[in-house]
Amino acid sequence: MKKYYLILVLGIASLEGYAQTPAPAVTTPPEKEWEISLYGFVRTDYIWDTRKSVMAREYELNLFPLDEVLDANGKDINAVGQSNFLSVTSRIGVKVKGPNVWGAKTSSVLEGDFYGNVEGSSIGMLRLRQAYVNMDWSKTSLTMGQTWYPQFIPECFPGVANFNTGIMFNPFGWATQVKLKQMLSKELSLTVAAYKEREYPTAAAGTVAVGSQNAASINSALPSLDAQLQYKGKNVLLGLGAEYKSLQPLTVYNNKATTEKVNSSSIFGYAKYTNDKIIIKAYGISGGNLNNLVMLGGYTGTVANGIQSYNPVKTSAFWLDVASNGKTIAPGIFFGYTKNSGSSTAATDFPSIYMRGITIIGTGSTATARVVDNVWRASGRIDFKKNKFRISPEIEYTGATWGKADFFGEANGDKKDVGNLRALVSCVYAF
What we know:
This is Beta-barrel porin-2, OmpL-like. bbp2. Keywords: Signal. This protein is mainly beta. It has a domain at 135-430: Porin, CATH 2.40.160. The chain has helices spanning 2-20, 215-218; strands at 35-49, 53-56, 61-65, 82-86, 91-101, 104-113, 127-136, 140-148, 174-183, 188-197, 224-232, 236-247, 252-253, 256-257, 262-274, 278-288, 297-304, 307-324, 329-343, 353-356, 358-361, 368-386, 389-404, 416-430. The strands form three sheets. The protein has a 16-stranded antiparallel barrel with strand order 1-5-6-7-8-9-10-11-12-15-16-18-19-22-23-24. A two-stranded antiparallel sheet has the order 2-3. The protein has a two-stranded antiparallel ribbon with strand order 13-14. It is globular and about 70 Å long.
C-alpha cells in the first residue's frame, strides 16, 4: 500500500513541477521596415465622335467642339465624324511604406502612365503623374512632391467613363507642392498648400513662350497659395477652399525689363453623399486665370508706356454627378457647365489675349477673333464590374457657344452653337 502512496506523491510532484515551468515566450515577427506594393490598370478606350473638337492625345481627351468654319461651298469643315482606339492611359504605380521619421509614419507614391507629355511623338511614352512623400503624425500630415492640384479633390470628382474626368468643369492636373494638413477634430481638417504649376501651365504671353513652358510660374518668386476646410463624416463630405496666385509671364517686354504680374484668386466648394445604394457628388469653382486647371480662362495684356500689364479672365464652372453604388452594375449620369466672363480690363489688341478657348485670325488692326462663351456637357454611363475587370459604355454630348470676341476676351455677338456626340466604351483591368 505504501508503494502505491509513494507513486501517487511522485506523480503529483511531477505535475506541480510542470505547472511552475514558465510557458515558452511567444515571439512576434519583427515589423517590416519597408513595404512596397504595385498598383495600376490596363485600359483601352474605343471612341467615336460626330464632330472635331479641341483635344489632346489623338482625341483621347476632348475639351469642347470646334467653332463652325465654312468652306467655299458653305460646308462646315469641322462637322465630320472621327474615331480612335487607344490604350495610352494605362497606368502603373508604386506605393512605399518606410520606417518612422521624427515620430511620423512615412509613405510615398511614384506613379506614371503612357499618355506622353505633348501631342505628337511623345504619345505612348511614360509620363510622370505623381511623385510625393507623406509624413503622418496622426493629427498632422505633411506632403512634399508632385500630386494633384489642391483644387482637385480625389474623394470628390466625376465618375464618368471618359478619360476627361469632367475636365472643363472640374479642375485637373498635378503640381509640385508642399502641403500641410491639420485635423481640427475627428471630422474637420484644415489644409494649406504652396505649389508651382507643372503639368498644364498658364498660357504664355506672346506667340512663343519665353524659356520654359512654365516660365510664368518660374518668373514669380511667390508660389500659388491654397487653403481648404474639409468636413468628413460617415456619409457626407463637404469642403470649401480659396486660392491666390501671382504669375509673371515675362521678364523682358519690347527690350525693356519688366516685373508685371497677373494676380488672381479663386474660390471653390464641393459636396458628396454616399450610402449603400447611391453616390451624389457636386462641385463649383469661380475665379481668374484658371487656364492651368485645364479650364477656360487666362488673362489679357494692356500696353502702356512701352510695358505690358495683365488682368485675369474670369471663369465659373460647376458639375453634378449621380451614380448607383451597385457592386456589379452601376449606372450614372453627369452634367457640367462653364462660363467665360472675360477680363475687367481690355486688351490692347487681339494677340494680347492669352487664354484657352480663343481663335485669333490675323494681327494688328485687321485681326479678328472668335472665343468660347460657354460649354456644357451631359453624359450617361453604365459600369459593368466583375472582380477587378470593368466595362463602361457611355454616351456624352458636349455643346459650346462660340462668338465674336471683344477686347475683354468675351463673346460679344455673332454667336453660334455647336455640339459633339461621343460614344465611348472603356475597358479596365485593375491590379
